[in-house]
Write a structure and sequence with these properties.
alpha+beta, Alpha-Beta Plaits, 2 domains, 13 helices, globular
Length: 333
């Protein structure tokens, strides 16, 4: 498939959801067990997970799903330029300083407070503030701060220079709830499909594990929950952020568990047929059903969604046709 300019996929001024992925150079296992050198780099998966959590606190984005694999990672991310425009200038300054701080002590690596002279200079520079608002809701800047950080840290650990990722990240626009749901399920089942785990709740470094932990009693959790994921459903008090998918978390987990049982040609992993329902395993019950098509992510399409969503998207970018319309007609209602 041909590659497309990022501006043909991402509109930085509009709230949008994107499925992004980046692979290690030559698809080497630089974030897992390297059989050639007999070195285990699994600890780097935690680097990626920690970095995503940190960046979610600095950028105006919502994180829906992620999976850190041995040689690549996936992430579903919604950019929020609307939120960036609403916050006061002081918050823009604070977030940017948190993202690019000056270090006061090499031994502790603790960032110093913003000097008053720098704070005053930034707050009075309207052009600087306008540019930082855009960057703090930019998909490209988020991925840059994620990938560059991991690459520098890994290269330093190995004592080498050069590329860690094979190139710029790939992105797909998710045009409607059906596409977001499809991409989310695909991402959350990556560890199962790769044969790294037998069930979603055992999938380390993956968002589905945290979703499941949110339903489990605190004393039964294998590891602490991370709280940077965007909620799937809106809280009853109406005060939580916008939901990432228009369904509750129990229904979503049931969908992931159901599709994980389907044997997909070319994928070595699946949830064993004799495994109990996921809600039996975690002490939860719900009735839910869904349909799926495993071929959706085999090709690098620039956008995913229903036929109607794809036609509107093609029109918005000045095209009469876009790849994937006929396929979406079969997959999405």
């Amino acid at each position: 498939m041909p590659s497309f300019a990022r501006k043909c996929i991402v509109d930085p001024e509009v709230v949008g959801t994107y499925h992004c992925t980046s692979r290690c150079v030559r698809r080497a296992h630089l974030c897992g067990y390297d059989e050639l050198n007999e070195v285990n780099y699994d600890h780097r998966k935690l680097w990626v997970e920690d970095r995503i959590e940190f960046l979610s606190q600095c950028f105006f984005v919502d994180i829906g799903n992620y999976a850190v694999m041995c040689n690549h990672f996936h992430i579903n991310i919604r950019i929020r330029p609307d939120l960036a425009e609403q916050v006061p200038d002081e918050e823009i300054v604070e977030r940017w300083w948190r993202l690019f701080p000056k270090i006061s002590c090499v031994s502790t690596s603790r960032p110093i407070e913003i000097p008053s002279i720098i704070r005053h200079e930034w707050l009075n520079d309207k052009k600087w503030l306008m540019e930082r608002r855009k960057r703090l809701s930019s998909l490209s800047w988020f991925m840059r701060c994620l990938c560059e950080y991991i690459a520098r840290k890994a290269n330093k650990e190995d004592g080498v220079k050069g590329r860690f990722w094979e190139g710029r990240f790939k992105s797909q626009a998710l045009l409607d709830d059906a596409a977001v749901l499809a991409a989310g399920t695909y991402i959350d089942l990556n560890p199962v499909r790769a044969g790294l785990s037998d069930s979603p709740e055992d999938s380390d470094f993956c968002s589905i594990q945290d979703r499941i932990h949110s339903l489990i009693d605190t004393s039964l959790r294998v590891k602490p929950r991370r709280n940077f994921l965007s909620p799937i459903e809106r809280a009853s008090d109406g005060l939580s952020p916008d939901p990432f998918i228009d369904m509750n978390v129990e229904e979503y987990i049931a969908l992931v568990d159901w599709y994980g049982r389907c044997i997909v040609e070319g994928k070595r992993g699946y949830i064993p047929a004799d495994a109990p329902d996921i809600f039996d395993r975690i002490g939860f019950k719900i009735k839910c059903g869904a349909t799926w098509l495993s071929e959706l992510f085999k090709k690098n399409r620039r956008a995913l969604g229903s036929e109607n969503s794809l036609r509107k998207y093609a029109e918005s970018i000045g095209q009469h046709w876009i790849h994937g319309v006929s396929f979406s007609r079969e997959v999405f209602v």
